[in-house]
Amino acid sequence: MPSSNPQALEEPTRPRHRANHPPHPLDDTQHGIPAPVLDAGAPNRKAITVPVITALLVGAAFIAVFLAAFHAPTSHRLPLGIAAPDATAARVELAVNDLDSQAMSFQRYPDPAAARAAVAHDEVPAALVTDAHRQLKLLVAGAQGPSAIGSIQSSLVTAVGHPIPVSDVVPLTEDDSRGLSIFYACFGVVLAGYLFAVSSYQIAPRLALTARIASTAAFSAASGLVVASIACLALGAIPAAFATTAVVTALLAFSLAASAGLIMRACGPAGVPLASIALLILGNASSGGILPPQYLPPWLAPLAYAMPPGIAVRALRGASYFHSAHLATGLTLLACWTVACLTAQYALDRAARSRTRSAA
């Protein structure tokens, strides 16, 4: 017979906690998380020290790399074209080498037209030529950025001892007066690719590789369309074609996400800070988006030609200003980088499955 006691009727609806498990202090803000999961958190000492050490490590690496690269940049074997009589060319080369024998390398051209074509196709950032009156004139590619061009002009004026007229063969677009739009666009894609990989592995660390590839492909395609829509259509900051910008940035996003995923797959939790140092810090610092790779320290410059950010920056700059120079190479390298990372992940997954079957 049912009890007539109102308190007895209300008792089942009251929240209860076992005597040995008091309410967790985060229960009111983390609904739906089982108590065993909350109770299984790291000890206080580890929960405090690990984030501090990790953040300091990544922050210190960012500061050290970017300051080492850009606090006082100087050129290292920067190619300079010369189309001038032998005596004039030799005199200029000697004067430049007297200032700094490692600052520039020299490429001779038979005439000013050949030197101009070399600048226009990104073979050299600038070329020193003589005009019809045998006066020196500096041809530059303003699309290399004002900092690089200003440095070249200053060095040559100091070397020859008098001002040199300058002609900008490849000027920047009016909507990108500092030449940094390509760098910032690629930086954003790199950051998004890294965050996508981190969140993907945190949410589903055991997701099948085929499903992960499909997810990454969707993210990459969307990234390319978003970047091209903003940079090309909305702002006009990148003068490359919409489709070209979308494809390059989509491949950059895919290669970054695949790279970060491989690092986290191979290194576990430590892969998160390692991927941020390798891809966000070293990759962006060496991209050549701020200054040409010849202005980077010798230990950092080679990464500009090997890592996805530098490959993408060079491809987009070539497509925007230099008659598509480096575009085909960039697309090929980004695709190869992506395939290599996915192949390595497949090999790791297969090895893990083999170990599991052997242990069973």
Q: Which bin fits the share of residues in helices?
A: 55-70%
Radius of gyration: 28 Å
Question: What is the number of helices?
Answer: 12
Q: Looking at the structure, what is the overall shape?
A: elongated
DSSP, total strands: 5
Query: What sequence of helices (H) and strands (E) makes up the elements?
Result: HHHEHEHEEHEHHHHHH
Point out poorly predicted stretches: 6-11, 24-29
Q: What distance lies between the first and last C-alpha atoms, to the nearest angstrom?
A: 55 Å
Tell me what portion of residues adopts beta-strand conformation. 5-15%
Structural class, by secondary structure, is alpha/beta
The chain-level mean pLDDT equals 89
Tell me the major beta sheet.
Answer: 5 strands, mixed
Number of domains: 2
> Biggest sheet: strands side by side, in what order?
2-1-3-4-5
Structure, explained:
This protein is α/β, with parallel strands linked by helices. It has 2 domains: 78-168, D-Maltodextrin-Binding Protein, domain 2 (3-Layer(aba) Sandwich), CATH 3.40.190; 181-359, no CATH class. The chain contains 12 helices and 5 strands. It has helices at residues 6-10, 35-39, 44-70, 86-99, 112-120, 146-160, 181-203, 209-234, 242-267, 271-285, 308-321, 327-359; strands at 78-83, 104-108, 126-130, 136-140, 166-168. It starts with 5 loop residues before the first helix and ends with a helix.
Essential attributes:
360 residues; alpha/beta; D-Maltodextrin-Binding Protein, domain 2; 2 domains; 5-stranded mixed β-sheet; 5 strands; 59% helix; elongated
